[in-house]
Q: What sequence folds into this?
């Protein structure tokens, strides 16, 4: 079927698929906070969670297992239950006439699916054919920052190292980090179950499957998704993705090579004027973004913007962003807001 | 006075200045473990610790406050009590005929003081004039890895991001990380006193003073000390130094640009054959170095050596090393071992 670009001009029937996960929970909170125009809200999750009741915006809502019938009459589905679930239900969702905003990686590199960061390429949202993909968390944070800089001069190459919190691996990983940390403090040694190794006072290279080129999937997502979102298929980007013992919010050390030297003050101004960015940069107090600054916040925090001493055309900067919020749930809702008539 | 290059060929009188700190404690343990030829061991610390007794190698040794008299008859002093203490006592130490191996940054960039990583430039140790400087921890770990690679082809530029543990800020910072983490787990909010911000499930850019160019001192140490140790004054290097909630052991994501493409297998072989390096690299199991692997270990662990997809002449790799051990105490003792006759 063919889709109208915009959602209907009335309170919507919205389904959240994966309503019990870390991102699902944040989605529900943000839908309420941002007064997203909802008439009916359906919560869908695995059989395991079916029957549970969640309080949302003063209403008690029973969680149902996903089924084709559940999508009947739905206008919009937010999915954050993983790629296989999104693939499984995409046709049912679209057949019911609902638009799918998908937080998984299932459709991100599909050339017919727009991959949208509202601060970067909002116009792409309206080209959808029933599915819009929400990018990977680290990619969202990075592109929000790269976009205004790329307007100063074309970006040639980006070298990124990430500091990714447990939240990126879900609510269970956050719980495990707390439990295993308590064990270490109690002098006990215990093994991780959710993550491959204990994150308690430890860190490790992101454990997503390795590609042929020995980059992990998380790193390849950053590379490929950044190119797609920035519409720069030739952009050179390399990433080292690392999981760190932080509960929530990801950080990134970013080295950006432009085709020519860019003055730091111009870069700072461009970032300061750009949407979705908060500069936290007090050189006098040696105070720059930290994960605790951005947990629960909408903006990507940026600081220590400086001329790279090793390369005339490069700038260095540091960013932090809430992985669950701007890195996932908020970005998905911002995409949906682009589809609202008169948005 | 002029110094003999080698230490006397007999059991030595050794003083440890800063005997109660994290590095001092590790020094004492390593001097015992490595059977360093000691006749008499003197433990020196601040007035606050004077009078305390430490057990070393079966002997009870009383801690004394440093004074010119304490250095009389001493052959070798290991100092790890900070730059101002090292500066204060350097003349007394050398006037007594003792060689100072200094862990502080006080003399590292002094052109008359060799800055030594035994795996990299051991020959420099024997050019000393009474003082040999032990490099900064992150620099030691990095140069151990850069050295064998630089023999494959000249290195043009290095981009590093660090993941530095609390141990780098001393024993008190490690204790604070544990205490503040327990507070977070107990639902309490409490403020840091040792570090400027709480590291509990948090991280921040290294808080050393910022230079004119907006790099912090820790980053400038990496840049300047690496150039001096590698004898590559033109080497381009940029670093982002980050403190992470790990108790012990630093990690580094390193991007290395050579003057020409280098095959990964050749780089891996060079690293594997080099002293002081352990390759931890199981691509099948997605298993690479972690801080917990190297805590208490002598070698720098390296893994995920891969061709940078963004630049034909670049390799990416990941390393972890024990900051207190190879990053400080072990390196200092290895320097001293270079000065032993028939070493």
A:
């Amino acid at each position: 079927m063919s889709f109208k670009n915009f959602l209907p001009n009335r309170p919507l029937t919205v389904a959240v698929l994966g309503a019990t996960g870390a991102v699902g929970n944040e989605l529900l909170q943000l839908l309420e906070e941002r007064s997203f125009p909802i008439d009916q809200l359906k919560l869908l999750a695995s059989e395991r969670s079916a029957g549970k009741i969640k309080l949302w915006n003063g209403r008690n809502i029973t969680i149902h297992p996903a089924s084709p019938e559940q999508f009947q009459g739905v206008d919009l589905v937010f999915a954050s239950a993983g790629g296989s679930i999104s693939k499984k239900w995409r046709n049912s969702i679209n057949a019911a006439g609902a638009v799918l905003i998908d937080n998984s990686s299932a459709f991100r590199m599909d050339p017919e699916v727009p991959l949208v960061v509202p601060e970067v390429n909002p116009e792409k949202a309206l080209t959808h054919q029933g599915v819009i993909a929400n990018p990977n968390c680290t990619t969202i944070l990075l592109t929000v920052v790269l976009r205004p800089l790329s307007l100063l001069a074309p970006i040639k190459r980006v070298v990124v190292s990430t500091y990714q919190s447990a939240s990126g691996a879900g609510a269970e990983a956050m719980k495990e980090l707390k439990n295993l940390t308590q064990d270490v403090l109690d002098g006990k040694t215990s093994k991780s179950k959710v993550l491959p190794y204990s994150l308690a006072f430890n860190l490790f290279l992101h454990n997503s499957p390795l590609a042929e080129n020995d980059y992990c999937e998380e790193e390849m997502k950053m590379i490929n998704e950044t190119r797609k979102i920035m519409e720069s298929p030739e952009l050179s980007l390399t990433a080292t993705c690392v999981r760190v013992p932080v509960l929530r919010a990801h950080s990134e050390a970013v080295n950006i090579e432009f085709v020519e030297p860019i003055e730091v003050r111009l870069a700072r101004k461009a970032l300061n004027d750009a949407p979705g960015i908060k500069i936290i940069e007090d050189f006098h107090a040696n105070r720059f973004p930290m994960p605790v600054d951005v947990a629960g916040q909408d903006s990507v925090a940026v600081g220590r913007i400086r001329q790279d001493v090793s390369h005339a055309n490069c700038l260095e900067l540091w960013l932090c962003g809430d992985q669950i919020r701007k890195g996932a749930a908020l970005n998905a809702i911002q995409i949906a807001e682009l589809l609202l008539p008169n948005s």
